[in-house]
Design a protein that fits this description.
This protein has about 290 residues and is an all-alpha fold. The chain is built from 15 helices and no strands.
């Protein structure tokens, strides 16, 4: 008891107490409720029931693996495309653009101030049959791209557009951490430009790549608006099933089970990724 009392009186504990209470109530509390509801009988709305694993068995035996598969596949594709798209831009912002990097940062971050749904409906107007793109191509060249909307590529386009800043900014930080002296030393030793990139720049910027990939993967894994607005009924992602279980089906336990599985997948990925990230180096402690 004396040790606990002495630990409680520490300034660090008192300073962290408000944040700890906030996280306990606002973050850990809802997660615990979701976990408890996942063991309740189907279509019940109270926790005072006999725990059961019936919902887990139902989810495993039904076709929800298709939704999980689509969500995982689109998340991986989005991460891969964003690495290819943002790495050159991040390199330019960190090493080349100089004073223009601030302006580019503002332009990229500015859409974050606008609702995601509004931005996605803007893409609907662009991709819609006889919309801006299709109508312009028909008028100018007699071509039609009327089948662009409500397809899987349209969903991927929306994800790449929405989550681009979450990949770009960690990449900028990762690339800016590469010392110029190491590149100059490699150049003096006769390394080619590609060898310098492969052996020096890419490995040393890997923390930024991994953090950006983690952010984008977790966000796209639970994304909902892109598949509903740009995909229509082309595919059903796991977030759609979770929403349907909690709303239309009024089956909170099943929605909780799907949520628990999704969170578990995310935690496993986070665990393995963070084993490869030197956080002390990322935050500049060494």
């Amino acid at each position: 008891m004396k040790i606990v009392a002495r630990w409680i009186r520490q300034p660090g504990f008192l300073t962290a107490l408000p944040v700890g209470i906030f996280l306990l109530i606002g973050f850990a509390g809802p997660l615990v409720l979701v976990l408890l509801y996942s063991f309740m009988p189907p279509k019940t709305f109270t926790l005072g029931q006999v725990p059961t694993i019936e919902n887990y068995i139902s989810v495993v035996t039904q076709s929800y693996y298709i939704s999980f598969g689509w969500s995982l596949a689109l998340a991986v594709v989005t991460v891969f495309l964003l690495i290819l798209i943002t790495y050159p831009v991040a390199y330019g912002m960190a090493k080349i653009f100089g004073k223009w990097a601030t302006l580019i940062t503002i332009l990229i971050a500015l859409p974050l101030l606008i609702s995601e749904n509004i931005r996605l409906f803007g893409w609907v107007l662009l991709l819609l049959k006889n919309g801006i793109i299709d109508g312009s191509l028909q008028y100018l060249f007699g071509l039609s791209l009327s089948g662009m909307l409500y397809t899987v590529p349209a969903i991927v386009l929306g994800m790449v557009y929405v989550y681009l800043p979450f990949m770009l900014f960690p990449l900028v930080i990762g690339i800016s951490m590469v010392p110029e002296s190491l590149k100059e030393a490699a150049r003096d030793l006769g390394a080619s430009r590609f060898q310098i990139f492969r052996e020096v720049e890419l490995p040393l910027s890997m923390p930024g790549i991994l953090i950006g990939s983690l952010l984008v993967f977790i966000l796209t894994l639970g994304s909902l608006a892109e598949s509903k607005i740009l995909g229509g009924q082309a595919i059903v992602m796991i977030a759609d099933d979770i929403e349907s279980a909690f709303t239309f089906a009024q089956n909170w336990p099943k929605g909780s089970v799907l949520s628990v599985i999704l969170i578990t997948i995310s935690l496993i990925i986070i665990y393995f990724l963070f084993r490869k990230i030197d956080l002390d180096r990322v935050v500049g402690r060494r």
